[in-house]
Amino acid sequence: MAGRWKNDLTWADVTPKAAWLNRRQIMAGAGAVSLLAAAGGVRAATGAAASPYSTDEEQNSFEDITGFNNYYEFGTGKEDPARYAHMLTTDGWQVEIGGLVDTPGTWGMEDILKGTSLEQRIYRLRCVEGWSMVIPWVGFELADLLNRVGVQPSAKYVAFQTALRPEEMPGTRARVLDWPYVEGLRLDEAMNPLTILATGLYDEPMPKQNGAPIRLVVPWKYGFKSIKSIVRITLTEEQPPTSWNKAIPREYGFYSNVNPEVDHPRWSQATERRIGSGFFAKRMPTEMFNGYGEEVASLYAGMDLKANF
Ligand SMILES: Nc1nc2c(c(=O)[nH]1)N[C@H]1C(S)=C(S)[C@@H](COP(=O)(O)O)O[C@H]1N2
Ligand SMILES: [Mo]
Asked: N or C end of the chain: smaller count of CB under 10 Å?
């Protein structure tokens, strides 16, 4: 396994020089929150957040973000992904983009990143289980990629699929979920500027336990919507099936917007525990749409959010 790990994609492989420079310029110019100086490897804290969409709340540590994960393909324990995700080979990663698009095809990571400038987005992540983190993602808007492939007028949804490799993903040898992990968004949700495809966090390429080499991040929805290690994106006319909804439909809806007023059938969603703050410390109120209502509430105007949970 060590050999494979070594041959995997590096930050330089997945990041065209121009995009990398561009990102560094953006970060330096705007005063990034944390910048791993390329030469010295020193983490320098500088001023304000790089994106107007970023929160200035205290960020979770790299250790929290990469040590406490949900990635059931590697096991259901919070420490299983950190322990086993190194088995995933990400070299030569390809994403198949198809369905109702003008130019269906298979994209290598280089093609996806070519012509895209990466930016930092510091988002809250609220897991449906009642914990949360603040994560400085690096990525680009999903809308950029969808516009490049050309979404046809009949498309109404976007479906996503995670890799399924039982030899590399020990968790998939148990039928915890109906593998592969699949997720979906309504097209307007997918096109919202908050919705990103992330390829890194802090100043690292995406750690495998966080969904290398490319994963979705939809910050106003419960964490399970933010599907990891994507191999397929399909534009559809019908609402696509989603893994947790298929598994337990009365507990997990298609929308799964963070909503403190709609409890999970087995627990309250009114509050959350911010990871890293101690088990009893810092239980905090959960915000409607995870605090992103200004950007996304209009997407659900007139909808009954209790029925469409
Ligand atoms: N393929 C896949 N994607 C997944 C999951 C998973 O088990 N498999 N877990 C989800 C859940 S429940 C959460 S809370 C987030 C966690 O992301 P993180 O580990 O990067 O914090 O990933 C989501 N994406
Ligand atoms: Mo989650």
From this structure: N
